[in-house]
Design goal:
Layout: E1 3-5, E2 14-17, E3 20-27, E4 30-35, E5 60-62, E6 72-74, E7 83-89, E8 92-97, H1 99-104, E9 108-110, E10 121-122, E11 130-132, E12 154-156, E13 176-178, E14 198-200, E15 220-222, E16 230-231, E17 244-246, E18 254-255, E19 266-268, E20 291-293, H2 298-301
Parallel strand pairs: 8-10, 9-11, 11-12, 12-13, 13-14, 14-15, 15-17, 16-18, 17-19, 19-20
Antiparallel strand pairs: 1-4, 2-3, 3-4, 5-6, 7-8
Length: 304
């Protein structure tokens, strides 16, 4: 799930990459891209979370379509980012940056594809707002606890080995949390993230929707590719700002409680096990709903 950067405040677009569709969301120049098999639809736009890092460096261009955050270099020079990772004990790593690198990108760090098994101790980064740790071997978020990341608004731990959502209590400013393609079985540990606007948990092992009632500002929720069988009467309680919900590729047989999401506009239900119109009748209670996908469900094959 690469993150890229672009000019402007917020824009959205879709394209195909290696035979699969990619959804994207631009947040103040940070584009969140989420691969969704067979889906050309887009995440909703939200207000900028990060300033465009190239505003003060107009000559700087992306040097890679995979690495993110501080993966900037002058066009064509091929230089990598300047990061210092040092082992400080068994299984522990400490990160520090040169003054030049801090000046170039003071508020964002990318540690994608570094073979990390834990979150490093990040030294001297009180203004950090974006942290990307995609494509590593991290199995726990406990390394976040000792870090001073009160200003962090964007955390990406896509494609790791995390099995539990923990240690996020101090991230009061967080607005975007990307945890797709991990090993998470339960939605929990999010009650303090009251500013969260985008939550991506696709491709995990979640069986039930829960633990979301405090997320009053959440606008986009991606739970595609999990093992959810039912949406219960109170599962969506508290999501009063939710506008887009992706439940594709689950095991859904019943939908209830959609009166709890009065702002919901887009609902993706493709490739589930919804048998009849009665199974989705509660959608009539979502008064703002304008788009629903039901392809790949038995109900879509009938005369209803």
């Amino acid at each position: 799930m690469p993150i890229t950067f672009s000019r402007g405040n917020v824009r959205k677009l879709a394209f195909r990459s290696r035979g699969r569709s990619v959804q994207s969301l631009d947040i103040g120049g940070s584009r969140v891209e989420t691969p969704q098999s067979g889906d050309d639809r887009l995440f909703l736009q939200i207000k900028p979370a990060l300033a465009d890092p190239r505003a003060a460096h107009p000559a700087i261009q992306r040097s890679s379509t995979i690495l993110t955050g501080n993966d900037y270099s002058n066009k064509g020079d091929g230089k990598d980012d300047v990061l210092n990772l040092q082992a400080v004990g068994e299984g522990k790593v400490q990160l520090s940056r040169t003054p030049q690198e801090k000046d170039r990108l003071p508020d964002r760090i990318s540690l994608d594809r570094r073979g990390l098994s834990s979150i490093p101790n990040i030294v001297g980064e009180p203004t950090l707002r974006l942290l990307s740790l995609q494509h590593n071997l991290i199995n726990s978020l406990s390394g976040l606890v000792p870090l001073e990341l009160g200003k962090l608004v964007f955390l990406d731990v896509y494609d790791n080995q995390i099995d539990k959502i923990t240690s996020l209590e101090k991230l009061f400013s967080l607005r975007v949390l990307l945890m797709g393609k991990n090993r998470i079985k339960r939605i929990e540990g999010l009650s303090n993230l009251v500013k969260l606007e985008v939550l991506d948990l696709h491709g995990n092992r979640i069986t039930k929707v829960s633990g979301l009632s405090n997320l009053n500002e959440l606008k986009v929720l991606n739970l595609a590719g999990n093992q959810i069988k039912c949406i219960g009467q109170i599962d969506l309680q508290g999501l009063v700002s939710l506008r887009e919900l992706n439940l594709k590729r689950n095991k859904l047989r019943k939908l209830l409680g959609f009166q709890k999401v009065p702002q919901l506009q887009k609902l993706f239900l493709s490739n589930n096990d919804l048998q009849s119109v009665e199974d989705v009748s509660s959608l009539a209670e979502a008064m703002s709903l304008v788009e629903v996908t039901l392809d790949g469900n038995p109900v879509a094959l009938g005369g209803d």
